[in-house]
Amino acid sequence: MNLFIRNETQKEWLRRLNEKQTVFKNKADRIDELAIFPTENVLELIDMGYTRSTLSKTYGGEGLKIYDMVLLQETLASFDASTALSIGWHLSVVGEIFEKKHWTTSDLDFIAEEVVKGALINRAASEAQTGSPTRGGRPETKAVKKGEHWIISGRKIFTTLSPVLTYFLVSAWIEEQQTIGYFLLHKDLEGLQIEETWDTISLRGTGSHDLVLEQVVVNHNKLVELNNLPSGKELNGWLLHIPACYLGIAQAARDYALQFANQYSPNSISGPISQLSNVQHLIGEMDLELMKARHFLYSVAEAYDDVTRRDYLSTELGAAKHAVTNSAITIVDKAMRLVGIKSLHRNNPLQRYYRDVRAGLHNPPMDNVTLQKIALAAIEQEKAKVAT
Hints:
The protein has 388 residues and is α+β, with helices and mostly antiparallel strands. It contains 11 helices and 8 strands.
């Protein structure tokens, strides 16, 4: 990990995060066992200024880039994955909004001031009938204009961070404009409620419940963003917070397995099992996967932060997510093979890492979409060669 720390700002943020390591790790089992949202963890991150870290310095934030976010989110996920993935969505949405600046100046000023004060925001875009918005489905949530107001009705799923969100950035179909709009909705609006539906075996503490909207009335200016681009056509490097989270889980699993190997000494051998060649082989395989995944992820993050190189990342963002999440699954699997049957005990963190890391397969973009995009890019490149 030290190889990827590039400056004093990163060192300072890592130092501050590592002060939370013991406390966050000690809560992780209970968060998972009872499916409790880690509210205390999130409040501590707000207090330390972490939630404004990806906000531009111009607007009162820390101005951290995607590379910085990936570095910090990987570390946080090694403490508690539910906390990391939850807050990662807020960090990425804030970073995206102020990088792309699709909003009006007054809207940007408003949300920046709210974030500085501790407000949390996430997009609410997924629906049961359309799945992930990255697949291009039209939302069934509708927004109808009535005078100077919009009336919004629908249901969103996978609304991560919902127990503590201040604002929901809700996608809705606008029939009169034949497009998707994003509306900035405050948590206290009449007709807006959270239905606690999140009951999975992975990342049980993310609070990814349903957001229910029943005739929610908002002022016309709450339409802050229009989606006029085809799905997947605009690069969004801030989504690299997703693979960073699963890389952190993999690192935690590897660390546990390595500690176990150095301490466990059955009476059938003299000394710990770390001296055995088959155990060393598993450790080597885990570390090699970590190296490959980390170099891939951080090189793509660095390239995205460089605006002169960003446009060349036609397939690398999705590829990084695909490669890292699948490597993370492999690493956790090898850690469990090393530890053996003890890894399946309810009080062993490896079984939690195993369940959590598999959720990466279902975060966007999906593996099949990524592979198809890579294939089509290769096909088009070859056609272009022939044409010239």
